[in-house]
Every structure is written in C-alpha cells, then in structure tokens.
Write a structure and sequence with these properties.
- This protein has 268 residues and is an alpha/beta fold.
- It contains eleven helices and eleven strands.
- Strands 5, 6, 7, 8, 9 and 10 form a six-stranded mixed sheet that branches. A five-stranded mixed sheet has the order 2-1-3-11-4, with helices on both faces.
- Strand 1, helix 3 and strand 2 form a beta-alpha-beta unit.
- The chain starts with a helix and ends with a helix.
Length: 268
C-alpha cells in the first residue's frame, strides 16, 4: 500500500510539472513576432509595403501580375508608422515614394532591406494641385506668392524640401514660405485636410496625386524647364521567404507595359 501511494504521488508531481511547462510555453509571445526580422509566414503571398503615393499603379500591376502568374501579391500602403512593425515581420518587398525615403528606411532599420536588390522604377514630376475650377487663378509658382493664397505643405513622405527646391530656382522661397498655412508629415494628412478645409488653395506635390484626387483637384503642370523629378525605388526584404517571387514581381514592374501603367498614373 505504501509503495502504491508513493507511485501515485510521483505521478501527480510529474503531471503538475508537465502542466506548468505547457502553460508557461503558452504564455510566451511567438518568437517570430517578438523579434523583428524573423518571419511568421503561412503562405507564398508576396507582401509589399510602402507609402500611399505610388499605390495606384503598383496595385493595378499587382492585380495584373496575380492574374497572369497565379502568384498572390498583397499591398499595404500608407504612412510608414502604420505598417512598419508588421513589415519587419513578413515583408517581401518595400518601396519608397522617393529615393531618399528608402535610403532613410535602410538607415533606420538596417535588418529590413537588402540594399543590393534596390531597383529604381520610374520618376515622377512635381506640380501644383488647386481647387476644382482654380478659383485663385493659380498658373505658376509665382502665383503662389500672391496675398491671400493658402498653401498646404507636406514636410515628409517623399516631399521633404520639394517646394523649396522648386522655389529656390526662381527666388520664390520667402514668398511661398509666407503663404504656407499648414505643414503636415504625410500625404494622408494632407488629403484629409484638403477635403475638410476648403480654405486651403494649393498643394505643391507630385502630379501623380491628381490622378488619385481628380474629383477634388485640378493639376497645374510646371514648364519642362522648371520641373523637378524624384524616383520610385523598390527593394527585396532581407528575410523574405519569397525571394524568387519578389524578384519576379520587380521584373514585371520593369516591363514596358508596366511603364505605361505608371505613365497613366502620372509618372514620366
């Protein structure tokens, strides 16, 4: 009887130890989610992250690519702060709205992007967006210096210093700076303000934004000699499990047919 009780006690202790280990394991965060750079992938979907500016053509081409190849492409676009944590976990591709944006991301997150895979897609020009009907009769950068003109400035998101680079060529920096009514960090914020605050008259940004906002903007193109262009880079994530498919999508974006899609959306 004593031997039986001893055996039973031993079994109960062992069971308690096993249960404690299992519960402790369940309480720990997933390793891939807890350490940026380690992936938590359950499919071969190519996951692409980047700002909202180039979303139009990239999404259109992602849909075409999936239809033609059967390889799913999932685009997540918008302000970096909204997707960067997830991108650290499962990104296959990262694109930028300007070359400096991707370079800045490489500096800020050295384990995220494979620098050797960096590829330039197409460049896009800056222009001026105005209200439908152009009530302030804005036709040039010089017109933006007129009294009463209210300008919205995006001080980031691929547009950092954009207006200053344009204005500096014509000696218009003081006049335009004086008429900047509000400055925000992202195009998403600018769009929200543009739609909610009708007192804002103009926005120096990329021509491509007009094609996303045709219902609430008119585009004032700058003369060729005044135009300023910035690039649209894309690169493969360092820890991708879909490198072959990611490179295949980049190659697809570089075809002439894809270039024509970008041109339709306002790229050069």
């Amino acid at each position: 009887m004593k031997k039986t009780l001893t055996t039973l006690f031993t079994l109960l202790v062992a069971s308690a130890v096993i249960a404690t280990v299992v519960l402790a394991g369940q309480g720990q965060p997933d390793t891939a989610r807890n350490h940026p750079g380690k992936r938590d992938k359950t499919s071969n979907t190519v996951k692409v992250y980047g700002p909202g500016g180039p979303l139009g053509p990239i999404q259109e081409l992602a849909d075409r690519f999936t239809k033609e190849t059967g390889i799913e492409v999932e685009i997540t676009a918008g302000p970096e702060a909204k997707w960067i944590d997830q991108a650290k976990q499962d990104a296959d591709l990262i694109y930028g709205g300007a070359e400096y944006m991707l370079r800045e991301m490489m500096n800020n997150y050295p384990d995220l992007i494979d620098a050797k895979s960096r590829t330039e897609l197409y460049s896009r020009a800056a222009g001026i967006l105005v209200r439908t009907g152009n009530p302030k009769k804005i036709h040039s950068l010089d017109d933006l210096t007129k009294p009463g003109v209210k300008i919205i400035d995006v001080n980031g998101a691929g547009q950092l210093g954009l207006w200053e680079d344009l204005a500096g060529r014509q000696g218009l920096i003081p006049g335009i700076d004086h008429n900047i009514a509000v400055s925000v960090k992202s195009s998403a914020e600018a769009i929200e303000l543009w739609k909610s605050n009708s007192s804002l008259d103009a926005w120096i940004t990329y021509e491509s934004w007009h094609y996303r906002l045709q219902d609430v903007t008119e585009l004032i193109e700058l003369p060729d000699q005044d135009k300023l262009y910035r690039g649209t880079p894309i690169a493969i994530a360092k820890h991708t499990d879909n490198r072959k498919e990611a490179q295949q999508f980049i190659d697809y974006l570089k075809t002439e047919d894809s270039h024509q899609v970008f041109q339709k959306w306002g790229w050069k």
